[in-house]
Amino acid sequence: MARYFTGEKIEQFKECFDFHARRGHISHEGDLSIIMRSLSFSPTREEISKYFKKHVSHEGQLDFASFLDVMHEHSSVENCKKELQAALVAQDRSHLGYVNCTDVRQILTSMGEKLSRNEVDTLFREAGIPPNGQVKISEFVQTVMTPSPDY
After folding, report:
1. Rounded to an integer, what distance in angstroms lies between the CA atom of residue 25 and that of residue 128?
2. Residue 99, SS3?
3. pLDDT number for residue 14
4. Which residues form the domain of 48?
5. Alpha helix segments (H runs only) across 2-116
6. Domain containing residue 45: CATH number
7. Which of 102, 103, 121, 128 is least enclosed, having the fewest CB within 10 Å?
8. Is the same domain home to 53 and 111?
9. Whole-model pTM above 0.85?
């Protein structure tokens, strides 16, 4: 896997994996989901299930080498920033870089990993977006894609 990731990236993956896989392996799909999300990836439940079934050993365990295979496979299909940007640009009928909050709410509550109404309200509040206003697409994508401080 060194040919797919830098040494620094592998170290980052290893540190996160070892934190969650105290025995050197994981045995549940939920653990795989937590680790991947901790690394700022956003796999769907279906993707997690597919990866786990494909890469788990006969003993029902996923070790770090197999985890790297999962990460390589997933990183080649996921580009959250680009996907979110494309979904919002498609709603920008005037091509000015803005979209209505109602449209953003509709996208976030009905596509992909659907957010609840409360989650969208919290996201808007934290991003400083008025509930009935306009959203500047580039700023919204940047805000949503910037990881939260972990302290």
Report:
1. 41
2. strand
3. 94
4. 7-75
5. 7-20, 29-38, 45-55, 64-75, 80-91, 101-110
6. 1.10.238.10
7. 128
8. no
9. no
* Torsion region of 60: left, alpha or beta (phi above 0 gives left; psi -120 to 50 gives alpha): left
Domain count, the chain: 2
Single out the residue of 77, 141, 148 nearest to residue 107, CA to CA.
141
Q: Is 90 exposed, middle or buried (0-12, 13-18, 19+ CB in 10 A)?
A: exposed
Q: Which amino acid makes up residue 89?
A: V
The string of pLDDT tens digits covering residues 53-101 is 999 999 999 999 999 999 999 987 777 778 888 888 988 888 999 998 8
* Count of beta carbons in the 10 Å neighbourhood of residue 113: 9
Q: What angle do CA 98, 40, 17 make, to 5 degrees?
A: 175
Residue 151: the pLDDT is 47
Residue 84 lies in a domain: yes
Is residue 56 exposed (0-12), middle (13-18) or buried (19+ Cβ within 10 Å)? buried
Best CA proximity match to 32, nearest among 4, 73, 3: 73
Tokens of 61: 């365990």
